[in-house]
Every structure is written in C-alpha cells, then in structure tokens.
Amino acid sequence: MIAEDLFDLAPVIPVVVLDDAEAAVPLARALVGGGLPVIEVTLRTPAALPAIARIAAEVPDAVVGAGTVVRPEDAERSAAAGARFLVSPGCTSRLQAAMAATGVPFLPGVATASEAIALLEGGITAMKFFPAEAAGGAACLKALGGPLPRIRFCPTGGVSRSNAADYLALENVGCVGGSWLTPADAVRDGDWDRVRDLAAEAAALR
Q1: Nearest Cα to 23, choosing from 182, 201, 170?
Q2: pTM of the entire structure?
Q3: What gap in Å lies between CA 80 and CA 52, rounded to an integer?
Q4: Is 95 exposed, middle or buried (CB count within 10 Å of its CB: 0-12, 13-18, 19+)?
Q5: Would you name the residues annotated as active-site residues?
Q6: Predicted local distance difference test score (pLDDT) of residue 206
Q7: Which residues form a coiled coil (predicted)?
Q8: Closest by alpha carbon to 14, among 45, 172, 35, 108?
Q9: Which residues in the chain come in under a pLDDT of 50?
Q10: How far apart (Å, rounded) are the C-alpha atoms in residues 194 and 160?
C-alpha cells in the first residue's frame, strides 16, 4: 500500500483519541461496520500505542494508523505496534526521513504552498492539510489545486459533519479526517451503535 491508496478506501478517516485501550477493538469494529475501515489513532494519550496494537491484532478489516506523529521515535514505535500508516501535523526533514524509514505509508502535514512544494520536491504527492479550517479551509485548498495539481490532500482540523462535503467536492481532496465520528461521550459510554451510525452517514458522503 502507498499513501495515495488511503484516499480510495473511504471518504472519511476517523481521528480517534482513546484514553482506554480496552475501547479500541469495539470502537474499530463499529467504525468498520459503518463503512469506514481506515482509522487514525492519535498519539495524544498513553493508551494510543496499545490501542493500535489491539486493533491491528483483533480487527483484520481495519486499516489502523497513527496520528500526531511529531518525533522520529513516534514513527518507529507506531510501526512496531502495527500501524499501517502514519500521519503528522507538520513535517521536518528529520521526521520525514524517520517516517520513510519505517516503510509504512505516511501523510505529512502541511499548511502552506511552500511546505507542500518542499515535500513535492521529494516526490511526495499525498499530504495532510492541517489545521484545515484555520489555514483557509476549502477555499484555500481549491486555490492550491491550480499551481499544485499533482498533490492530493487529506484535510483535518475543523472538518466536521457540516462541512466535510465541501472539502470532498474538491478535485485535490482525496479524503477528510475528523473527530466527529467518535464523540467522547459515545466512546465513554460504549455506545457503539451511535458510532456505527455516524460512520455509515460519513461513508455515504462519496
């Protein structure tokens, strides 16, 4: 699998924050059951790496990845835990090299044309656009499509149920990432039917 393949698996990548690794498997099964097999578990809590490992081992239909990869060791540990892709909010040459060294597909984060061009010079054409809304939203991405037609983006950061379709309508958007699929109260209460319904609604966006 290459990074661009992620765009073809589902229109929305759930961005998941987990405080309890025990919730990882039922959550992943609910998302997959709703039609969203690609799941980004962010490295914002101690439960993240164990959660990735659990999903990788127990939910074979899920394509689980690690988000908030900001240090070289984040990339290494995520790949070792079973992450099948990596996502960073921004990118440096050192972080890019570390992500590439894992052999796992990755979406490096950019917020400007200059950052995107720097990655394009290295042959990267699939990127995360973050923070999407704060950086100019769908209008900004549409503008970038003119001078940078080879790049496809996964915008995250402020992408929601109400504006996801605006992003997905753009030719240079492969998919979007968002946290609205896994509301904190639904995860806390184990309301997996609600998560499945939200996933099904999002899966129908394309």
Answers
A1: 182
A2: 0.97
A3: 10
A4: buried
A5: 40, 128
A6: 75
A7: none
A8: 35
A9: none
A10: 16
